[in-house]
Amino acid sequence: MKNLIPAERTNNIEYAIRDIVVVADRVKKTGKKILPLNIGDPNKFDFKTPPELIEVVTKAMWDNNNGYSPSSGIEDAVEAIRKEAVELKGIKNIQNIFITTGASEAIEICMTALVNRGENILLPSPGYPLYSAIVPKIESTFNTYYLNEDNGWQPDIDDIVSKINDKTRGIVIINPNNPTGAVCSKETLLQVIEVAKKYNLVIFADEIYDKLILNGSKNISIASLTDEVPVVTFNGLSKSFLAPGWRIGWAIVSGPDKEIADYIEGAQRIVRARLSANHPLQYAIKPALEGVCKHMPETLKKLSERGEITYKRLNAIKNISCVRPNGAFYAFPKIDIPIGDKEWVIKLLEETGVLCVHGSGFGQKEGTKHFRVVFLPQDDLLNQAYDKIEEFMNKNF
Ligand code: PLP
To answer: In the chain, where are the structural domains located?
Structure first.
């Protein structure tokens, strides 16, 4: 038997968040205690899935809703998503909604349905690495635009315009953002819409953190600001409803009906071919979006406090500066160091056990270095980690 050679398209698939765990496992085996600031999974810390949702899902299973569901999802859930999108977010011109195995599947379906080989979708840099992992799978080409650290990590509109070429079909906006924790201003969103209109781009709006807004910021769904530009809005239960393992997400396609009908049919062909999303878990969507759960005030209180600890502690450390996170549970501090940021992250891990992800795993401006912090851990764990980072910086840099 000859060696099995994987397809070339797998060569460029990287996912820094999980790749660094391989190094952490090695360090753990040496007996070092790991302080994990690396993974955006609330259930790994003191956040629990709302019991109201667990109850409806359990009932759905006992009621034998364990077969396939309709491909776009169960009717009650799709209707609840539509109602919330219209009434709470103000999204206009909704043409299609479908429920998926996490927002991840929705993202992959919607990108796959749009681009041909060699075309591109503008991705934010820094940005969530799933998007760049999909690019080689669909034989698209990489095209990234910068978020401007000097402007609170808002998308850099001039950079976006300069990166558009005749093969650009769409633009991804992650708002609130992973890995920076930034929330886009209305002004920025309106500028993105103008650019999308001028250059015929689909806007992919990843709003998976839309309910996790801190410091009195305001979250606006970009789809609520236009009825002319096609927008695909992604969301799900993973983050705001503390259930990432349930793998429930969805896509809301909005915009001018005639112009986007063929695209929706393309996406729907993929949706039908993969049968359905996890069926019994979909029963949680309606109660979640209708406000049955009581976890939100406490979740936001914890995240606000932990975000503030992160912001204050990191800015007090030599050669580290950090933009205040206003959403999600991430910060993306800059480090002024004479070594690469991956090397820095590994050295920090080996010497202190603090586990972060290197900024280069998310993309960043040439010549700059960062790391991503997840501020989900309890205050004392966070403070321990920041003590260790402080000592490490004082000792080494
Ligand atoms: N989009 C962003 C910006 C994320 O940070 C994540 C997970 O971390 C996802 C999508 C994936 O969401 P899901 O768990 O619904 O697949």
So the answer is: 8-48+295-396, 51-289
Pocket test for ligand 1, best of 104, 111, 362, 372 (most atoms within 8 A of CB): 104
> So what's the pLDDT on residue 8?
86
The domain 51-289 having CATH identifier 3.30.1450.10: the answer here is no
The residue assigned the tokens 């590994």 is 346
Mean pLDDT, residues 319-339 taken together: 97
Mean pLDDT of the residues in the chain: 96
What is the tens place of the pLDDT at every residue in 330-368? Answer: 999 999 999 999 999 999 999 999 999 999 999 999 999
* 250, pLDDT greater than 90: yes
Q: Report the pLDDT value the prediction gives residue 298, as an integer from 0 to 100.
A: 96
CATH number 3.90.1150.10 given to 8-48+295-396: yes
Summarised one tens digit per residue, pLDDT across range 28-67 is 999 999 999 998 999 999 999 999 999 999 999 999 999 9
Q: How confident is the model at residue 126 (pLDDT cuts 50, 70, 90)?
A: very high
For position 18, what pLDDT does the model report?
Answer: 76
Q: Could you tell me the two tokens for 49?
A: 């899935």
State how far the Cα of 206 lies from the Cα of 175, in Å rounded to an integer. 6
Identify the residue whose C-alpha is closest to ligand 1 atom 5: 178
For residues 302 and 323, give the distance between their C-alpha atoms in angstroms, rounded to a whole number: 19
Residue 19 has a pLDDT of 79
Residues 6 or more apart whose Cβ sits within 8 Å of residue 235: 81, 103, 207, 208, 210, 249, 250, 252
Ligand 1 pocket: which of 153, 212, 239, 247 to mutate (most atoms within 8 A of CB): 239
List ligand 1's pocket residues with C-beta within 6 A.
40, 102-104, 128, 174, 178, 206, 208, 236, 238, 244, 249
d(CA 280, CA 53): 11
How far apart are the CA of 327 and the centre of ligand 1, in A? 14
d(C-alpha 306, C-alpha 379), whole Å: 6
Phi/psi for 132 (5° steps) reads: -75, -20
Quote the CA–CA distance of 24 and 354 in Å, as a whole number: 9
Half-sphere exposure at residue 126, Cβ-oriented, CA atoms within 13 angstroms: 28
Query: Under DSSP, is residue 354 helix (H, G, I), strand (E, B) or coil?
Result: strand
